[in-house]
Amino acid sequence: MDAADETELIRAAQAGDKDAFEQLIRAHDQSVLRLAMNLLRSPDDARDIYQETFMRAFRNLPGFRFDCSFHTWLYRIATNLCLDQMRKKKVRREESAVVATHEGEIDRMDSFTEERAETDPQRSLFSGQVRRRVKETLARLTPRERMVFELRHFDGMRLRNIGEALGTSEEAAKNCLFRATQKMRAALGDFV
Fold it and tell me: What is the per-residue pLDDT for 33?
């Protein structure tokens, strides 16, 4: 969808056209869901954030001023909701990836295998160790650092867009990414 068509849909939705709003949702729903899933790592939480993002967008659409793209505006809503959810999870104890069974302890992350690594047991072991270390390090980052790191490296967003989505400057997003990257490098130092 080009910018002119999107602007027309936004204006129609602001005037109360529900079909126009549904078209906007369809144009952006997968990226919002992917963002929430990448950040929260929980399908249930991601679906909740997805729904809340579009409910808030619908309620606040009359106030949309076209000072940023609609996509950036949605990402700002979704990232703020994800940050809130991540903070709540930090307050509540996060569920461990390791669970006790009658056969002993099992790390649930081990059930996610990289298919290409399966043919080489040593590579598979190394891949599992790196994956666990990345997961542990992401969990230790502040919610904002984690969000910026994941938006940049997992979603491929540009720093300017990350700054807009978080309601801050590109420079602030860049500094936050630098801190997160330094922490990740320190944690992965023996693997690289």
Answer: 92
Return the domain boundaries, the chain: 1-95
State the Cα–Cα distance between residues 64 and 126, nearest whole angstrom. Answer: 48
Largest CA distance in the chain: 60
Per-residue DSSP letter, 116: G
Average confidence score pLDDT of the chain: 84
Residue 16: phi and psi, rounded to 5, are: 105, 5
Q: Which one-letter DSSP state was computed for residue 107? A: E
Which residues have C-beta within 8 Å of that of residue 75, sequence separation ≥ 6? 31, 32, 35, 157, 161, 164, 165
The region of weakest confidence among 16-25, 27-36, 181-190 is 181-190
Please give the model's pTM, rounded to 2 decimal places: 0.61
Per the CB < 8 A criterion, the answer to whether 147 and 36 are in contact is no
Contact 112, 131 (CB under 8 A): yes
Indicate the CATH number for domain 1-95. Answer: 1.10.1740.10
CB 173 within 8 A of CB 159: yes
Residue 88 has φ and ψ, to the nearest 5°, of: -60, -40
